[in-house]
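JOB MANIFEST
job_type = single_chain_structure
chain_count = 1
residues = 82
[input]
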Amino acid sequence: NEETAVDIAEEILFETYGRSRIEDQRPYEVRLLGNKVWSLKGTLNNSTLEKLVSGGMPEFGGTFEIDIDPRDGKILKIIHYK
C-alpha cells in the first residue's frame, strides 16, 4: 500500500541523502503506475522563496525520484536531481 511504499522509500532516502534533505521535500507525490511500480517524487517547498524575501541566502536544489516494485519492495530506480 501507499504507506508501506513511503516507509520503504524514506528508509533508503534518509540513509542515502539525509533525513532533513528528504523531509524538506514533503509532501511527496506518490503514485501506483499500472499496479507495477510505486513512483515517489519529492516536491520543492516554499523555503527558497521565504529565504529570498527575508534577505537570506536560498539553497537551490532538486528533488528525489524513487521507483519501488509493489510485489517485493525492490528499489527499481533512485535518483536525486541538483
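[summary]
The beta strands are 29-33, 37-41, 64-68, 75-80.
The helical segments are 2-17, 19-23, 47-54.
exit_status = 0
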